[in-house]
Design a protein that fits this description.
With 459 residues, this protein is an alpha/beta fold. The chain contains 13 helices and ten strands. Helix content is 51%, strand content 12%. It has an eight-stranded mixed sheet with strand order 6-5-7-4-8-9-3-10, with helices on both faces. A hairpin with a 6-residue loop joins strand 1 and strand 2. The longest helix is centred in the first third of the chain and has 49 residues. The two termini are 57 Å apart.
Length: 459
C-alpha cells in the first residue's frame, strides 16, 4: 500500500512538473536561445542564459525527469517508471537506515537504564556497608569512594566511546600536575560538555576520584544527582535572587568538604549557563559596558571563581596568592593550596555541540570532540575582584580566538614558541571498561539476591 501511494505521488508530481516545464520552455522560446543540450541518460548543464525558473527546475529535477532537445534548447519529460522505482529504492534504503538508528537507540537506552539501575544503587549500598570504616579511617573510606566514583564516570564515558565519540587533546599536557591542586574553568555549550570531561579526565591519574564539580542545582534531581551529592559536589542556583547566598554556601561547602575529603581539582563553568541561552544577554551586556563582542563563548561570571581562589589558595600576609604554605589535610600533612588554574576549551566539529541525548541514544555518526588545555600558575592569577575580572575576561577572549581558529581550520593554533600544533588521541581501555561494567552487573545481582533472601526470611 505504501509503495502504491509513493508511485501515485511520484507519477502525479512528474506529470505536474512536466507540464510546468513545457510552459517554461514555451516562454523561453520568445527571446532566449538556450545553448543547453541533453541526452535521455544524462541531464544537461544549466546555462546562465536560461530563465531562472527553468534553471532551478532543471537543477532540481535530475532524479525524476529526462531532458531532450527542443526548439528552445531542452524539453523536460518524466523518466521511465524504472527510474521512479530507483528513487523509491533510495527512500526505502533511507527508511531502513532510520529504522536501524531507532532500534540501536532503543537498545542503548535499555542497556543504560539497566546500567544505572545496578551501578548507582550498588555504589550507595557499598558506601553504607563501609560506614564503620569511615569512622575508623576516613581517608581510606574516601579513597574507596573515589575509586567507585571514577568507575561510575567511566561507565558514562563508555556510552559515548562505544558509539564512536572520542576526544582529541591539544595544548598543554596536564597529566604531570594531576596530583597538584587546581581550579579548572571550562566553556559551556551543552550537557555533553560534562560527559566529554568525564571521558578525557579518565587517564589523568587520580584527578577523577579527587575532583569536585560545581554544577547547576537541577542536576541534583537527575539519576546521577545522588552520586554527586554523596561525593561532595556543589549544586549552585542561578539568578540574582540567589547569587549572594549561593556564594556563602559555596564557601562553607569548600571549608567543610574540600580538605576533609582530600579533593584536588575543582571544575566549574564560569559562564553560568549554556552558550545558546546566554549569548544574546552576554552580547547586550558587553555592548553596554564596552566589552569584547563574543560569539563562540559568553562573558564569564566572577562570583564562584573569586570564592574558590580566596578559600583554597594559600595567601601571603599582603593578601597576594602564594604557592607555598596552606592548610592541613586529613592526614595532618601541610597542603600547598591551589597551584594552577587550568583553562579548558571544548570544541565540537562544525560548532554542533553534543548533548546527553546523543550520548544515550548514539544517533549521531562517530564524532571527535576537541579539548584544548592551557595552564596558568596560581601566582600569576590576580586576587582582587577588579583585576581578577579583567584576567578572567581575557581568558574567554582567548577562548573565542581559539574556537574561531578551530572552526575555520579544524585544528587549534600552536602554543607560543611552537611552529605546529600537536594533538594527542585520548583512548580508553576496552578491557578495563568491560571489567567495570561486569562488576556493576554482578554487584547489582548480588544485592538483589541478598535483599530477596532477606525478604523471604522475614515474610
Amino acid at each position: 500500500m505504501v509503495a502504491l501511494l509513493l508511485v501515485v505521488h511520484f507519477g502525479f508530481a512528474s506529470f505536474a512538473s512536466s507540464e510546468k516545464a513545457e510552459l517554461l520552455c514555451k516562454q523561453a522560446e520568445g527571446g532566449r536561445n538556450c545553448e543547453a543540450r541533453a541526452s535521455p541518460l544524462r541531464p544537461p548543464p544549466v546555462s546562465n542564459t536560461l530563465p531562472p525558473q527553468l534553471a532551478d527546475l532543471l537543477t532540481g529535477a535530475r532524479g525524476v525527469f529526462r531532458f531532450l532537445p527542443c526548439a528552445c534548447g531542452v524539453r523536460v519529460e518524466p523518466r521511465e517508471p524504472a527510474v521512479v522505482c530507483f528513487t523509491m529504492a533510495q527512500l526505502l534504503d533511507g527508511a531502513s537506515t532510520l529504522g536501524w538508528v531507532v532500534l540501536r537507540g532503543v537498545f542503548r537506552f535499555v542497556f543504560m537504564f539497566l546500567n544505572n539501575c545496578v551501578a548507582i544503587p550498588s555504589y550507595c549500598l557499598y558506601l553504607i556497608l563501609l560506614q564503620p570504616l569511615r569512622i575508623w579511617d576516613s581517608s581510606a573510606f574516601w579513597h574507596l569512594e573515589g575509586v567507585m566514583f571514577k568507575w561510575l564516570l567511566a561507565m558514562v564515558s563508555s556510552w559515548g566511546w562505544i558509539a564512536g565519540y572520542t576526544v582529541t587533546e591539544w595544548g598543554d599536557d596536564v597529566r604531570p600536575i594531576s596530583e597538584e591542586e587546581a581550579m579548572v574553568i571550562v566553556n559551556h555549550q551543552s550537557t555533553g560538555d560534562v560527559c566529554t570531561l568525564m571521558m578525557c579526565l579518565q587517564d589523568k591519574g587520580t584527578v577523577v576520584r579527587k575532583m569536585m564539580w560545581l554544577m547547576d542545582h537541577v542536576f541534583k534531581y537527575t539519576n546521577f544527582g545522588l552520586v554527586s551529592l554523596i561525593h561532595g559536589d556543589f549544586f549552585i542556583r542561578q539568578g540574582k535572587a540567589h547569587r549572594d547566598k549561593q556564594l556563602i554556601y559555596l564557601k562553607d561547602h569548600l571549608d567543610k568538604y574540600y580538605h576533609s575529603r582530600d579533593r584536588k581539582w575543582v571544575v566549574l563553568f564560569p559562564e553560568g549557563g549554556f552558550l545558546r541561552k546566554r549569548r544574546e544577554t552576554s552580547q547586550t551586556f558587553a555592548k553596554k559596558h564596552s566589552l569584547p563582542h563574543l560569539t563562540h563563548v559568553t562573558l564569564p561570571r566572577l562570583g564562584a571563581t573569586h570564592v574558590i581562589l580566596k578559600t583554597l589558595s594559600a595567601q601571603q600576609e599582603n593578601g597576594s596568592i602564594s604557592g607555598e604554605g596552606g592548610t592541613l589535610n586529613q592526614k595532618g600533612n601541610k597542603r600547598k593550596g591551589l597551584q594552577w588554574v587550568i583553562d579548558v576549551t571544548i570544541a565540537y566539529p562544525k560548532a554542533r555541540p553534543m548533548d546527553i541525548q546523543t550520548w544515550i541514544f548514539g544517533y549521531r555518526s562517530p564524532t571527535v570532540t576537541h579539548v584544548h588545555y592551557r595552564m596558568y600558575p596560581i601566582k600569576d592569577v590576580p586576587m582582587e575582584a577588579e583585576p581578577l575580572t579583567d584576567w578572567l575576561y581575557q581568558r574567554f577572549v582567548e577562548k573565542e580566538d581559539l574556537l574561531a581558529h578551530f572552526y575555520n581550520t579544524g585544528s587549534f593554533p600552536p602554543l607560543e614558541g611552537q611552529k605546529q600544533a600537536a594533538s594527542r588521541q585520548m583512548t580508553l581501555d576496552p578491557v578495563w571498561l568491560c571489567l567495570i561494567q561486569s562488576f556493576a552487573f554482578v554487584s547489582g545481582y548480588m544485592w538483589f539476591s541478598l535483599f530477596q533472601y532477606l525478604y523471604c526470611c522475614l515474610f
